[in-house]
Amino acid sequence: MADGFTIANFRHVAHGLQEGQFAVGEKRRAASLYDLPPIYRQLLDEPVTVTLAVTGPDGRPSLTPMWFDHADGEVLVNTASHRNKCQWIRDNPRLSVLLVNPKNPYHWMQIKCTVRRELREWEEGGEDVTRQLDRIWTKYTGQPGPYALRDPKIDEKRVLFFCGVDHVATFGEP
């Protein structure tokens, strides 16, 4: 979004009980994910398994644990083209991602975003999809690429969704 997004910081209990805890304490505008305080930016860059929420055909959220990536102010969602989730994202391009600190569940961040564009591995520029997948493979496994979890029974192809950030909610401290 050219005009940025809102960050809602919830009142938390990291330093003890407080009046109005668990309610939104402050809201501020941000132009980029890089405007987040460092304690939340670290969740973006560390290998935190996130929960991706998409809307299924029955209107209910479908939740998937997955690897997280971002670049140039956008959330990147890389998935196999044959999975239901891929079509569900196309049908309803509004997604939510929840990043929870694995060492402290009271330190988390939610990002609501909207797909801006899609890049398919088998089309022009598709090598960028493969490079991004190899990069997050290394981030999460510590092993060099290529990504080694493609389904061996099919010619698995990947799709990369570039998502603009609409809203961020933050809670807690590491």
Automatic annotation (TrEMBL):
Pfam families: PNPOx_N
GO cellular component: cytosol
GO MF annotations, alphabetized: coenzyme F420 binding; oxidoreductase activity, acting on the CH-CH group of donors
InterPro entries: F420H2_bilvrd_red/Heme_oxyg, Pyridox_Oxase_N, Split_barrel_FMN-bd
Domain Pyridoxamine 5'-phosphate oxidase N-terminal: 40-121
Sorted UniProt keywords: Oxidoreductase
The keyword Transferase is assigned to this record: no
Keyword Oxidoreductase: yes
Domain of life: Bacteria
Matching PANTHER family: HEME OXYGENASE HI_0854-RELATED
Protein's UniProt name: Pyridoxamine 5'-phosphate oxidase N-terminal domain-containing protein
Organism: Rhodopila globiformis
